[in-house]
Amino acid sequence: MKHSDLLDIAKTFGDPVYVYDSEKIISQFNRLTNAFKGVKHLQLNYAAKALSNISILRLMNSLGSGLDTVSIQEVKLGLLAGFKPESIIYTPNGVSLEEIEEVAALGARINIDNLSILEQFGSKHPNIPVCIRINPHVMAGGNSNISVGHIDSKFGISIHQIPHLLRIVDLTKMNINGIHMHTGSDILDIDVFLYASEILFDTAKNFKNLDFIDFGSGFKVPYKEGDIETNIEELGQKLTEKFNDFCKEYGKELTLAFEPGKFLVSEAGYFLAKVNVVKQTTSTVFASIDSGFNHLIRPMLYGATHTILNISNPNGRERYYSVVGYICETDTFASNRRINEISEGDILCFKNAGAYCYTMASNYNSRFRPAEVLWHNGKAVLIRERENFEDLIRNQVDAKDIFSTKKEKAAVK
Ligand SMILES: *Cc1c(COP(=O)(O)O)cnc(C)c1O
After folding, report:
1. Residue 329, in any domain of the structure
2. Which of the two ends of the chain, N or C, has the fewest CB atoms closer than 10 A to its terminal CB?
3. Is 218 annotated in some ligand binding site?
4. Block means of pLDDT (10 residues each) for the chain, length 413 residues?
């Protein structure tokens, strides 16, 4: 997107504001599809938790994507956005049997990631096919919070528990229609991913009625200059070959599924916020923006690096800044970052603001969550209003009748 378009959006819709470029989402979707064009049945299920605005979900649906969900609320958002129940897959972790049953009743596909629930669900509903989430214990990804394949991970059924799993399937006579893994975010080493896929194929041989194998996601996208990203084309080529070989051996053309979140929406997003104060201290120059980790928590939560541009002064001299938020505790977006000279009132643009940004936003410090705008075919469309004071107090119950102020007490005396 052009800087002038972003500045116009900030002017029209106010700031802070999230902007999503549909063209980038579409091109990422097509890129992944093309990388696997050698697979007969490919199914991409967009991971809703990355960015769950219903207009984004509608866009994904229009592209032919399915939907990967982790809560019953995401399932319901998907249905609202027009997804057919059978194109929604539900991959929760540690949720109750009741919630899983409710989702099954809505018609979504179920993915189970522990033996306790598998046994209970299979005993009660042997006729509802389920997919099982395997933990191949292969470690992918940089940040320990987003690596989910390691031995201590709470995700998935360990490959070492396959004999127990098979016993449950056998005793309950349940039908396993899919095998799944999701080893975490930020896959850099394709060979590690392929190694995990071998484990999945080995596991799959134990089940006779499979329809699909789901390789999860975790594709790394570039966040800053010089960042390495997952080589999707190379992965496509190598995994396609392995997958097709497996299907031959298995005797059935299975569907190859992925659940990309970050890959589809991260780079499509821009977060725009105004600089309130430029503050010189003895050691640094702070640029304080009209936002905080209540709106974009990734730098504070994961140490994520988001490229920050001063789109109000793109040709200004570069200087070093610490960009900070207004939250009343440590709230740092970036330290010692070279940015074109910043003046108060300038609009800063955070890149890679599509995935895990708005969906992690909160009302901390009693601030409003920002608006969201979709840039589609050269037009800006508001897809979520900025919150207002009414929104902040909507569900609060004012227990004013149970308190009397000190003043009133004095008056009673
Ligand atoms: C979060 C999640 C994804 C998406 O991961 P990305 O790194 O954003 O692509 C996919 N599958 C499952 C089960 C997830 O929990």
Report:
1. yes
2. C
3. yes
4. 97 98 98 98 98 98 98 98 98 96 98 97 98 85 52 84 96 97 75 89 96 93 89 95 98 97 97 98 96 98 96 98 97 97 98 98 98 98 98 96 75 58
C-alpha of residue 45 to centroid of ligand 1, in Å: 10
Q: What is the atom index within ligand 1 of the atom nearest the CA of 185? A: 7
Report pLDDT for 146.
Answer: 47
- Under 8 Å CB-to-CB from 413, ≥6 apart: which residues? none
State the amino acid at position 178 in one-letter form. Answer: G
Q: For residue 280, how far is its CA from the centre of ligand 1 (angstroms)? A: 41
- If one counts the domains in the chain, the total is 2
Looking from the CA of 36 toward its CB, the CA atoms found within 13 Å total 23
Q: Does 143 share its domain with 222? A: yes
Measured from the Cβ of residue 72, the count of other Cβ atoms closer than 10 Å reads 18
Same domain, 271 and 256: no
The answer, yes or no, to whether any atom of ligand 1 lies below 6 A from the CB of 260, is yes
Round the average pLDDT of the chain to a whole number and report it. 94
Q: Are 270 and 187 in contact (CB under 8 A)?
A: no
Using the structure block, give the residue that is written with the tokens 């955070």: 350
Could you report the per-residue pLDDT of 231-283, keeping only the tens digit for each?
A: 999 999 999 999 999 999 999 999 999 999 999 999 999 999 999 999 999 99
Co-location of 240 and 314 in the same domain:
no
CB atoms within 10 A of CB 43: 19
CB 352 within 8 A of CB 24: no
Q: Are 74 and 100 within one domain?
A: yes
Beta strands in 59-204 (DSSP E): 66-69, 88-90, 109-112, 130-135, 157-158, 176-180
Residue 38 C-alpha to ligand 1 middle, in angstroms? 24
Question: What is the per-residue pLDDT for 221?
Answer: 92
State residue 192's pLDDT score.
83
Whether 119 is in the pocket of ligand 1, judged by its Cβ within 6 Å, is: no
pLDDT at 139: 65
* Rounded-to-5 percentages of helix, strand, coil across the chain: 35, 25, 40
Active site residue 357: no
For residue 87, the model assigns a pLDDT of 98
Helix (H) or strand (E) holding 348: strand 347-350
52 lines ligand 1 (CB under 6 A): no
250 is in an annotated binding site: no
- The answer to whether residues 175 and 129 touch, using CB atoms and an 8 Å cutoff, is yes
Site of tokens 């539900």: 90
329 is in an annotated binding site: yes
Domain that holds residue 59: 52-260
So what's the pLDDT on residue 233?
Answer: 95
